[in-house]
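The material for today's practical consists of a large collection of protein records. There is nothing in a record beyond a sequence line and a structure line. As an example, a complete record with its sequence and its structure tokens follows:
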Amino acid sequence: MSTGAPQALNEAKLHDFVMKSVGEMGAAMNAALIVIGDKLGLYKAMAGAGPMTSAEVAAKTGTSERYVREWLAAQAAGGLVTYDAASGRYTLPPEQAFAMADESSPVFLPGFFQVVAACMKDEPKISEAFRTGKGMGWHEHDTGLFSGTERFFRPNYRAHLVKEWIPALGDTEAKLKAGAKVADVGCGFGTSTILMAQAYPKSTFVGTDYHGASIEVAREAAKKAGVADRVKFEVAKAKDYPGAGFDLVAFFDCLHDMGDPEGAARHVLETLAPNGAWMIVEPFAHDKLEDNLNPIGRVYYAASTMLCTPASLSQEVGLALGAQAGEGRLAKILKSAGFKSVRRAAETPFNIVLEARR
């Protein structure tokens, strides 16, 4: 406990901090409203519809006008919709509609707010983990986390995976077009696996994840997408997934979640074809903490506290890299596992894509 003299308060700085915190309060409360707007189709009802009254939005969505009126006021105060006082109508601008109502948009956001809602539900468990130092497995979280994560990552993968990331992996794209063998490890609901299967019809794919419930969803998704004849989904851990001779092994936003990423890397090395490539997609991060103290880093550090670090600590070794591991730490682990070549093949504001080879 500090025994020094109390520090004098700078009233201007205190005022600035309190007002900043008011913004935090509004954002935190609005997270629940975004989940509601997404779940009830309120954003989709307003997209492209022009100015609408609360009664019109309610009628279009089969919801209560009084609740919708209050929801719209909150959305207007936060800048998600605009309000015309003269007509008493609200509009969802096209830019906001692109991010909030269009699930094919590369910046579709509501899935992330499902993740936020799941994190809030799981707060008591994570608070206890702070006290004990124990981990919390992915499977132990609120189920909203699984669908929210898939909905949030899907637009990003759809926008970049086939168009940018795979073409950046040397000869890998040519192999996939000709007919290659691919493993997608930590595949979750199988979105990344299915996207690759649709783009490369001559190749075969196996997606693995330790979470059985996610694999069940992935299998149904493959059937729906019409690729089940070339895509298999199996329950397996990253250190013991079956198969060998893979031309491409892919890890999407999951290596840092693993308790023993070096052990997983050694298994990848064993299962790769001699000239195969390992694609590791990770959250964007600089190597130094101070360089990650920005809005994107803030989101990732928060998610890492609630999800990634507990996941790793729940497993063997429990290295707990966190979501902001950075290229330097990741490359050191991959080379320690036996990979001779590690390079940054591509990046976006939200991801770095590493290529590792023998």
Q: What stands out?
A: The longest helix spans residues 11-39. The radius of gyration is 23 Å.
